[in-house]
Fold each of these.
Amino acid sequence: MNLVAENEIKAPESSIARRRSLANPSALGYGGFAATLMTLSLSGMGFRSISNQSVFVANLCFLAGVGLLVSAQWEMVRGNTFDYTVLGAFALYYGGYGVLLLPSSGVLESYQGQTADYHNAFGIYLLVWSILNLFFFIASLPTGAPNIVVYGALELSYIFNCIGHFVRADGNILTSMKLMKVGGAFGFVSSLAGFYMLGHELCRDVLPFRFPVYNTSRLASVVKSSEHSN
C-alpha cells in the first residue's frame, strides 16, 4: 500500500520536472521573425537608400529560415498547432526568399532583369502569401492584441507590396515605389509588434514583471456563445 502511494506521488513530480526542463521556443521564433522582417521593411521604406538586399540573405536563410524552423518543431512538441504552422510556414518563406536574392540562384537572370514578367510573377507570389497570412490573421484574433498587430500589419504589407509589383509591371515606377514604401512601413509596424512579443516571452521567465498582451480570447468565447444561442 505504501509503495503504491509513493509511486503515485512521485510520478506527477517527474512529469512536471520534464515539462519545466523544456525551454520556451516562442522567444526565438518571435526574435527571428521580427529581426528579419525589420531589415526587409527598412529597405522597402528606402532607409539609407538600400537597393541591393543580398546582405539580408544571412538573416533570411539562417536566423529566420533555420531559427523559425527549429522553433516550430518544439511548438509541435508542446502541442501548439497555431505556432507550429505559422513558424514553420514563415521559416520556409524566408528561406525561400533568401534563395531568390542569391545571385547564384539565377532567378533574376532567368527573367533577364526586373522585367514586367518578373514583377508580375513576384506580385502573384505575394498575392498568394497574403491569402495564407489572412488565415493566420483570423486565427490570431483570440490570441492577444500584439499578435493581431503582427499579422494584421503584415497582411497590409503583403497587399501593398503585391500591388506595387503589379503597378511596376505596368510601367508606373513612381507609384510603385510609393506603394512599396507603404508596404515597408506596415512591415515595420509588424516587426515592432514581433519584438514586443519577444520581450513578453523573455521577461515572463526572468523578470518579476511581464509585457501585457491584452488577451482577446474572450472575443472568441463571445462569438461562440452567440453562435450557440442562434
Amino acid sequence: MRQLKDPELLRTLSYMDGAWHAPEATFVVRNPSTGEEIAQVADVSADDFSHVIAAAKTAQAAWAACTGKERAAVLNRWYREIVANVDDLATILTSEMGKPFAEAKAEILYGAGYIEWYSEEAKRIYGATIPGHQRDKRILVLKQPIGVVGAVTPWNFPNAMVTRKAGPALAVGCAIVLRPSEFTPLSALALAELAERAGLPRGVFNVVTCLDAEAFGKALCTHPDVAKISFTGSTKVGRILMQQAAGQIKKLSLELGGNAPFIVFDDADLDAAVEGAIAAKFRNGGQTCVCANRIYVQDGIHDRFADKLARRIGELRVADGFTDGADIGPMINRAAVRKLDELLEDALSKGGTVVASTDGTDVSGTFFKPTLVTGASADMHLARYEIFGPLIPLFRFQGESEVLQLANATEFGLAGYFYSQDITRIWRMAEKLEVGMIGINTGQISTEVAPFGGIKQSGLGREGSFMGADDYLEVKYLCFGGVE
C-alpha cells in the first residue's frame, strides 16, 4: 500500500464506544488489483454486539439533547477533516476497493458532501403548527430522533455509503452502529478516526468490523434498543432483514438492487447519449447499483450509436487503480469476474455478438475488459440480472410503448435514463418509467442535494436532500385542549 501522509488514518481496530477495540480474532483485507495483503482487521464477535448497542443508546440521549447548532458544528468539523485528508482517504479506498485513484478522490468529496449538507440541515429539523379542529384546540407537530440506528454498508462505495447514512442520522440526534463490508472496512475506520478528531462524542458513531455479517444483521434486527435499520446491498439480503425486523416493527431504509434501463430515442443527441452511457455504465467499473444495466436504442439509430459507443469503449484503459490514466480498475474479487464471464457466455449462446472490448493488463485475475454485446434479447440473463460490471448489452426497439414495457419488465425500480429532445415524450417517459430516479439527457444523477432511492424491490426510503433526514425522525402530534 502507498505511504500515507498521516499513517494514523490506517486503522485496523473496531471503533466502539469511543475506543479502539482489539479482539483476539482478525481477518485479512487485500488489494483486489494485486492480491496484496493490506491489513489484518479486528473481527468482533457477536458477544460484543450488545455492548456497543448499549453504549450507543446511552450516548444517543445526550447527543439528542444538544441543539441543532451544536451538532452542526461537530459535523462541519468532521466535513473539514475529510476534505483536508482527501488524498490519504482516496489512497486507502483505492487500495482496498480498487477503483482508479482519481475516481476514489471524487468519491471522498462526494461523500463529504453528505456530511456538509446534513451539518446544515441539523439546524432545520422543523415541526409544524396546524390549525385546530375545534375552537379550544391547538395542534403542534414535533420531529424527534428515532434513537439508535443500525447500519450496514457495501464495498463498492466504502466511504460515501458511510457518510450518506451517518450524516442524516447524526444531524438529527441519532447514534449509529455501523458495519462496513469485510472487503473494505478501512475507509470506514479512517472516517471514525476523523470523527473522533472532530469531537464527535463517545459512543455516538461506532464502526464494528466483523466477518459474520449474518450474526451482525440479526443482532441489529432483534435487539430492542436498535430503533432503525439502514442497509445498502442486495435485494436478497434486504428481504432477510425485513423479515428479521418484522417482529419488532422496526423502521427500515433499504437501498437494494437495480436493473437500470438506458433508453436512446431516434431524436437524441447521439454524441451526448454515448457520453452519458459511458458515465452511467462505467463509473466504478460498472459496480454501482445505478449503473445502466440494459441499453435500449431505437432501431433507426441503433447501428450508428453502437459504432460510436464501440469506439469510446476502445479508448478506456483497464489498469490498477494507482496507474495514471486508469479508467477501469479491478472487480472486487474473482467471483465477480466469474459472474461476468457466465453472463457473457449466456448472451453469446443466445445470439449476442461482441462488437467492442478493451485491452488491459490482467495481473490477479480480477480484471474484466469493458465489453459491448449487440443483438441482446429479453431471454438473456443480461436482461434480467444486475450485471455489476463493465459488460453492456445493446437492445433494439421500435417505439415508445414497446420500450416502456421492456424497461418496466423487472422487479427492480431504482434508476433509469433516457435521451430525447421531444418535450412531450420526456414528460410521458418520466411519468411512466417505474423507477425512483431518472436521468434525462444525463448519465450522472447522484448528489447529496437530491433524494436517492428506489421503488418496487429496489428498496424503501430516501438518502440525501432534506427528505433524507425524515427517515431518521419520529413524528409526534401534540393536541392542546382548553385554550379559550
